[in-house]
Amino acid sequence: MSDILLKELSNADIDWLVTHGQRQPLAAADGLIQPGQPAAALYLLLEGCLAVRSAGDDQEIAQLFRGELVGEGWLFDLEPAVSIVSASDATLVLAVSKSALVQKLQQDVSFAAHFYRALVLIMSERIRRLFEQTEPLRYQSEQMVKEALLVFGELHDSDIDWMVGTGQVEKLGAGRVLMHAGRPVDALYTVLDGQLAIATTDRPCDPLSLCFHGLEQQGATQNFRPVAYISRGGLPGIISFLDFQPLPVRIHAVRESLLLAIPRQQVTIKLQEDLGFAARFYRVIATQMANLLRTVVADTNAAETPADAADELDLAALQQVSKGGFKFDWMLKHLGVACS
Question: Is 34 helix (H, G, I), strand (E, B) or coil?
Answer without folding.
Answer: coil
